[in-house]
Amino acid sequence: MDQIGSAILKRGKMVEQISSNETLLYNVFKGESGNGKMEVMEHATVMLLGSKTDNIGRLVNNDAHMESLIKVRVVILETKGEPSLNLIKEEINTLISERYNKLFTKLQENEADVFGMGQFFRNQIPRDELKTGGQITLKT
User: Fold this and answer.
1) Predicted model pTM
2) Are 130 and 122 a contacting pair, CB within 8 Å?
3) Residue 53: pLDDT band by 50, 70, 90 thresholds?
4) d(CA 17, CA 19)
5) Which DSSP category does 35 fall into?
């Protein structure tokens, strides 16, 4: 079975697609495993063994701020040359950060909340603003 991506829906209509790599990020964010996924980077090839994501949402001057700490467990399958563990960690961090930023930008452009970010802020928005549909701005 090939997984070619997922659809972004807005008001019941497909407005965009996300790739299988972006779908993996979604699954990791939601706490679902991406076990077995291999990544070929400049200095190493790694396989994802597991992941855990901790999310903290807060409102600052009516702007929503989300901080996500993604912990991944990988096994190094092969290296090119003799890179340090810190270099490999930095490559993984850069790879994941760039992909998340690209995905969040795509979602914001389509005004889609597939990650359910609004739920992280629901208890921080005054009840009267919830009733009137108060707006917050999501910044990544």
Assistant:
1) 0.73
2) yes
3) confident
4) 7
5) T
